[in-house]
Amino acid sequence: MVKTALSPKPSVEVGLVCDAGTSLAGVHGLTDLFTYAGEFASKRQDGDGPPPIRVVHWRWDDGETEVTHSSDSQSGLPHAPTILIIPGNLRAPLQSFTASPLIPWLRQRHAEGVVIAAVCGGVFLLAETGLLTGRQATTHWALAEQFTTRFPDVLVESDHMVIDYGDVVTAGGVLAWADLGLRLTERFLGPTVMLETARYMLVDPPGREQRYYSDFNPRTKHGDAVILKVQQWLWTQRERPVSVADIAHYARLEPRTFLRRFTKATGMTPSEYQQRLRISRARELLEFSKRSIDDIASNVGYDDAGGFRRVFHKIVGLTPSDYRRRFSR
After folding, report:
1. Cα–Cα distance between 22 and 265 in angstroms, integer?
2. Which domains does the chain possess?
3. Which of 100, 110, 304, 319 shows a CA-CA span of 20 to 30 A to 327?
4. pLDDT tens across 249-274, in order?
5. Cα separation of 168 and 164, whole Å?
6. How far apart are CA 39 and CA 57, in angstroms?
7. Among candidates 26, 104, 116, which has minimal Cα distance to 60?
8. What is the chain's alpha carbon radius of gyration, rounded to the nearest angstrom?
9. Cα–chain-centroid distance for residue 107?
């Protein structure tokens, strides 16, 4: 039987959008990932046809009026980006880029059908374009409150590592560029090439969630001094449930008034907030102690170990046993 060669796929042009605040780890990491993916895809095509992936670095520098390319793996050819990725950015969470030529440039590329993606702090820059308005997006869990304050029309879901709308994709966490890159490799080059790339780079295939790693990071900059005092007190009580009536008494507020103010300030009910605190304590015990899971459940105020396991999995995304295997010191 004659073996039929695989037909070459059209070239995929990946653009990495950089400025002075861009994380070099993200730029070089994504460049390497897509280079490896292109090599694996090329082997499956018997080396026929053009390289399946072209990687271009686009750059804008302060004071410049245009976005230009600074590096190109297939120079000399007309540019037709398939996707533009904004890697992690250290400046974007701290300042506005509304006056930057990057913003209209990204909007125009999106209008031309180019997929726009961003990682960690780079999601702030993507949000400046308005392309995330009314949609869910993820960024680093420690930046979620700051992001929500600046972009209230975007629904932040920082438990997720990647949120993919097809035309816009966001990834949370400094090293989430790997999850994003593999997700896009799977989309454009197929699952086999994606898995080969992941194995070669010793990276877990897409499927991780940011909540495996994130600490409970409650809102504290809400301006309600009474509720802030309650939050600080609840931290000392995180190994036992406290009733709303008892918390309201501590706050010297009527229960209904307390409940309204607490929910407005923190974005959670007191019950949800305490649940997060107790699970946070359980994570510490799973990481640093050898206590049994039933003992840890009891230690953080759960009489029913089965109920503790269900709540833990709902919040963290892993069972207590899986969490201990992954993170115990």
Report:
1. 33
2. 12-211 (3.40.50.880), 225-327 (1.10.10.60)
3. 304
4. 999 999 999 999 999 999 899 999 99
5. 6
6. 19
7. 104
8. 23
9. 22
